[in-house]
Design a protein that fits this description.
Length: about 425
């Protein structure tokens, strides 16, 4: 792949975005920095909004969910909205509130499994912590982002001499007893809980007594990269689903004076069901759209017309065909990396796509000059779901589920196609411009 090709540039920018975003809270901070650099204004849900036609705005809820929008030049009731949704969270491990475990002269950290990660992929990797802490500052609680850049943690495998069947039976880890992560050795008279608290407090630059609470994710410190004979593939953590967040935000920032009002919604908690104040099952997107409608002076009739004329694009990753495991794929739906955006369909509404919305997204791809693919899950395997059906049901809006093809979904290190990020950005630009 040429060093200066647009696809390579987009892929490297995606890697930079992911590497700056080791937790959902960092992902929103990374998105915010990019939006501010492109002239977007932050709005506060607790304050009165002042928004004007043609304006570029964003709002954050809960630190890990963000909605950004560019107001179009034509009446929303006539054109509707073009909304792209994605999610900021990824499956993995999260620190428990009282995580430090001592014994055998070691400090270990107890973790909870968040979502559905491939647990075996977290073994023997250089792991660390990233997230947010709440500290007491001038007598008041204050939230700060924390990230340890150096490898702090490890989940060592059991030697094959002690687990002779691992290659035949697969690595199985008890989520309570076999997942605590090695942090360090206990010094004489040292307390494990005090050691962890001091580590976090020092990073937050506060006294240990002023460290109130935390939400910390475990992440792999290895940076993303391009790989393959011609650098045709990407390897990184959290491609599911920061690749979609990056594509949606990049497309939105490219909109200078759109006719249609364009919206990007990046939600937390998709991997655990979306039922939260900051998830797609909450009120966040409906609340923001209601306030946009209020400032546009839409009456209830025109608000309903706006939703009826709108389209929601649920952007998440798709299962790329893996030639080593052909039996797990629907024979006529083998989607490939670097094959363009994937339109995902499920008759049981695990995906929100229907024939009309699929055709509309095909049109966006054709306008952008990029290929597209169609995916259906094998009938005798359970199918995952997305925010598409959730948002479509809450808003009563036409919806389509799409995504870029991905290998090793929910692994600590996933792989995708270098070309596909540029393809998805182009398709979403065409959708916003339609």
């Amino acid at each position: 792949m040429p060093k200066n090709s647009p696809a390579r540039t987009a892929a490297l920018d995606l890697i930079d975005f992911i590497d700056a975003s080791p937790s959902p809270w960092h992902a929103v901070a990374s998105a915010e920095a990019r939006l501010l650099a492109q002239g977007f204004t932050r709005l506060d849900e607790g304050q009165r909004w002042q928004i004007v036609a043609g304006g570029r705005y964003y709002v954050v809820r809960g630190g890990a969910s963000l909605i950004a929008f560019v107001l179009g030049s034509t009446a929303m009731a006539e054109t509707g909205l073009c909304i792209v949704g994605a999610h900021t969270d990824s499956p993995g491990l999260r620190l428990k509130p009282k995580a430090a475990l001592s014994g055998d002269d070691l400090i270990r950290l107890g973790v909870e499994v968040y979502g559905g990660p491939i647990l075996a992929t977290f073994t023997d990797r250089d792991l660390s912590l990233a997230g947010r802490v709440v500290v007491r500052s001038a007598g008041l609680p204050q939230t700060r982002l924390l990230r340890f850049a150096q490898p702090l943690l490890r989940l060592p495998n059991l030697a094959i001499h002690l687990n002779r069947e691992v290659n035949e039976q697969g690595l199985k880890l008890n989520k309570q007893t076999e997942l605590p992560l090695m942090l360090g050795q206990l010094g004489e008279g040292e307390n494990a809980e005090a050691s962890l608290r001091r580590l976090l407090a020092d990073a937050a630059q506060v006294d240990a007594a002023d460290l109130l609470s935390w939400e910390m994710a475990v992440y792999d410190v290895q940076k993303g990269c391009l790989w393959g004979a011609n650098e045709e593939f990407i390897a990184d953590s959290q491609l599911d689903n920061l690749a979609s967040c990056h594509a949606a935000l990049t497309a939105l920032m490219a909109m200078e004076s759109p006719t249609t009002t364009c919206v990007v919604a990046c939600f937390d908690h998709e991997e655990v069901g979306s039922e939260s104040a900051v998830g797609a099952g909450g009120s966040f997107v409906a609340d923001v759209l209601a306030r946009i409608s209020l400032h546009a002076k839409l009456d209830e009739e025109d608000r309903r017309r706006t939703l009826a004329n709108s389209l929601f694009i649920s952007a998440d990753t798709a299962h790329a065909y893996h030639p080593n495991f052909p039996a797990v794929y629907e024979p006529a739906h083998k989607v490939t990396v670097n094959g363009g955006p994937v339109i995902k369909t499920n008759a049981n509404q695990r995906y929100s796509t229907n024939a009309e919305t699929a055709a509309r997204f095909m049109g966006f791809c054709e306008t952008a000059g990029v290929p597209y693919q169609q995916y259906a899950h094998r009938g005798d395997l359970g199918c995952g779901s997305t925010i598409g059906p959730i948002v479509a049901a809450k808003l009563g809006i036409a919806s389509v589920d799409v995504g870029s093809a991905l290998w090793a979904m929910h692994s600590a290190r996933e792989s995708a196609g270098t070309q596909d990020q540029a393809y998805m950005i182009a398709a979403l630009i065409a959708a916003f411009a339609s």
